[in-house]
Amino acid sequence: MPKATDLHTELGLKEEDLIEMFRFMLLARACDERQWALNRMGKAPFVVPVSGHEAAQVGSAWAFERGKDVFCPYYRDLALVLVAGFSPRDVFLGLFGKKDDPSSGGRQMPAHWGSKERKIITGSSPIATQCLHAAGIALAKKIKREDAVVGTWFGEGGTSEGDWHGAMNFAGIHKLPLVFVCENNQYAISVHESKQVAGSVHSRAAGYGFPGVQGDGNDVLECFRLTKEAVDRARAGEGPSLIELRTYRYYSHTSDDDDRTYRPREEVDEWRAKDPIPRFETYLKSVDVLDDAAVASMREQVATDVAEGAKSAEEAPFPDAADAAKHVFASEGVN
Amino acid sequence: MTEKNVVTAIHDTLMDEMRNDDRVIVLGEDVGARGGVFRATMGFLDEFGEERVIDTPLDECLIAGVAIGLALDGLRPVAEMQFADFIFPGFNQIVQEAARIRYRSNGDFTVPMVIRAPWGGGVHGALYHSQSVEAFFAHVPGLKVVVPSTPYDAKGMLIQAMEDPDPVLYLEHKKTYRLIKGDVPDERYTVPFGKAAVRREGSDLTCVSYGLMHHHCVEAANRLASEGLEIEVIDLRSIYPLDIDTVLESVGKTGKAMVVYEDNKFLGVGAEVSAQIAEKALFELDGPIVRVAGPHVPAMPFAPTLEKWFLPDADRIEQEMRKLAEF
Description:
The structure holds two protein chains of two kinds. Chain A is of the alpha/beta class. Chain A has helices spanning 7-10, 15-40, 54-61, 78-83, 88-96, 129-143, 162-173, 204-207, 220-235, 265-272, 276-286, 292-315, and strands spanning 70-72, 150-155, 178-184, 187-188, 191-192, 212-216, 241-246. Chain A has a five-stranded parallel sheet with strand order 1-2-3-7-6, with helices on both faces. In chain A, strands 4-5 form a two-stranded antiparallel sheet. The radius of gyration of chain A is 20 Å and the shape is globular. By secondary structure, chain B is an alpha/beta fold. In chain B, the strands form three sheets. Chain B has a seven-stranded mixed sheet, sandwiched between helices. A five-stranded mixed sheet of chain B has the order 9-11-10-13-14, sandwiched between helices. A two-stranded antiparallel sheet of chain B has the order 1-8. The chains are: A alpha/beta, B alpha/beta. Chain A binds chain B through residues 70, 101-105, 107-108, 112, 114-116, 121-122, 124, 126, 129, 131-141, 143-144, 162-163, 166-167, 169-170, 173, 326-330, 334-335, and chain B through 25, 51-52, 56-57, 59, 61-62, 64-75, 77, 89, 92-93, 96-97, 100-110, 141-142, 144, 164-166, 194, 241.
């Protein structure tokens, strides 16, 4: 039995939460490995990898109330959208550009998430544009007196965009129920944080009049703790927060990138050793939530789910060419 | 029925719509205490309060992006760009986001928002308070771009824009704000997009225009009537959707076509209208399609002599009409 002083108990997390969080981290990693392999096989033209970011995404997403709160993610947030309700099949439908891809019906590149039903706001490729949408949605929630918090996710590169600063400024002025989550993996494609960010990401919040904190993005419980505090503040009407979660991506920026031109292998290995998944597994075993057998069984189930999801998506139909002209406007035939 | 100028028609319509629908939010620079630099939102703050009349930071990208968020969550934002010349920091949000959200989400998300922007020259506004921006935005599928030129249309098209389920760029010609007056019905009505107005009938030449230029075209046509030339003058009202059918029908009757606009001639609205006439009515034509438009210089200069050189006026339009009619 977990002790009353266990970290997760202090954070208000039950055993079921921990098991689910761990499962989502495994699921994201397995989806990623599968999609990377499909790319190398020539079956998936473009992949945005998530590996390394699982704790940051699952930990932060877990602090929100699904079905009520709103997610404005960026392209690397595969683990986050799984938490928000995407199935592995949904992920692979997007990867292959299939008709039933919930994000776009095969219109957008993979990893451009969106689903009204799951309260994941559609995203584009230009960086940090979603932060202003998040600010507008948060303002709408405030005007309507709706009990909902908005979260927006981005990399440290996104914090250079005017859209990001505009959103921070507006959120501060109007004390919006908005949580900014930076997944700082230290590289915007090839450009290192030292050439991207003057000062530090989290300290920028001070200039906008609200709290900014930094945490270990590979520690899922830490990511949850920091985000939960921010979500609670937002829900209580105390305004926005900025959370900077320091992490690392294990693969290249995308399947079209080659990180060997800009990241030393020793650095990648160093961060591989800090992998958030074994780290959380160690914790779960230490508090007797899972044992080796349970972990093995979970991994097996996740592998099955991913294989089935990928297969089913691969067999699913492409959109009809004639559908490409639809949804330009509400009414068809305006040309 | 009340006689109003264009900006009063816009002000009164927006105010009525805000009274009718709690979802309507106005946001922009100086729209609150100042009531807008052109007074389009005068008195709004007192009546509707700070939650529905939002003085934004000086950040046009923010204005567009926040308005998108409001629309995504079910409100009906009417965003004001203080001058169309300053809309460009918001270009990415308008073009990449607002215009593409319905399409890229396969119809899952929609952005019913209106962006109001005062545009056009003839007001001593020089390079950065005189610009025409319609061509940049009309090029983008997913956006509607409308250009009312009368107080009647200003009201009916603003209501239409606010009821539209998709983003609408509603361009208000600054020079017409107080110059152009007309009767405006007191009751609520809409003017549908994509329906041009034949303001003056004639059999010798078809003249297509919009905004301030439309009024110059009517004046030039009236003068030519004394010479026995009958010019048909069409006000496009909306750039997109474009009512090419009304234009083609007129060209079929007159055999001569002219497009007048104050934007730079190159790749402006006149290029599209001319191309469609050429594609669809070549054998109806008895003369070249003529474009009377702004010159290819970066923007309208300030000094009165320079501004006059840039902006087509009734004299120049009259000469061009006569020349084409006599071709």
